[in-house]
Amino acid sequence: MQGVVVILAITVVVFGAALALLLTAGDPAARLPIVVVPALLVHTVLAGTALIVIVRRSPTTFRSIGFTKPTARLWHLLWQVPVIITVAVLVQVATSVLTSGASEDAGGSIDSLLTGTSGTTVVVLVVTLAVLVPFWEETLFRGLIFTSTRARWGTGVATAVTALLFAIAHGIPILLPYYVTLGFALSLLRIFHRSIWGPLVLHVTINTIASTAVLTTLG
């Protein structure tokens, strides 16, 4: 679990520094975009780089954690992605109904972060969230964690553990059912496609849709 420890350390250092900058600012709200967006980008780059270094310096290979040659099985994503997104949305809707719409507040943070920011900042944030974040998250969860856990305790345990860790890592209690559902779906794609490309495509697709939806509301 070296990857988990390293990512946790990077997260504490980067976002701890960002929080310190905000707390010492005269107007934290005004400085939020110019502090949080660079922090997110730095965190993503450091996380991705760290995971690449970990794989290269360990007996683990990129091939063994799922970075294999894409196969024709990826065509199944044409139906798998829409089905999974539909199920995830239904889970979120059900959660929202059962909690009397409390989950609506969870999406407001990004809106407030982007409001009044420059076009360059928006582009950097969207690219980071839609493409770069899925890369390092899939490398960690469906790559290193899933592979090592499956080798020790089997596919079932690996699927459950990875899904739960993925949900907890996103740190939004009201969205926990949604992220658990998505975590299981990503792990099942990892199993079905026998590579990391299936879950990576789904992850990028979902993050892109979410980012586009936020931009649409701002426009």
UniProtKB/TrEMBL annotation:
Domain of life, per lineage: Bacteria
One Pfam family of this chain: Rce1-like
Single GO MF annotation: endopeptidase activity
Presence of keyword tRNA-binding: no
Transmembrane region(s): 30-54, 74-93, 113-136, 157-180, 200-218
Keyword terms: Membrane, Transmembrane, Transmembrane helix
Signal peptide feature range: none
GO biological process, one term: CAAX-box protein maturation
Domain CAAX prenyl protease 2/Lysostaphin resistance protein A-like per the UniProt entry, residue ranges: 122-209
Protein name from the UniProt record: CAAX prenyl protease 2/Lysostaphin resistance protein A-like domain-containing protein
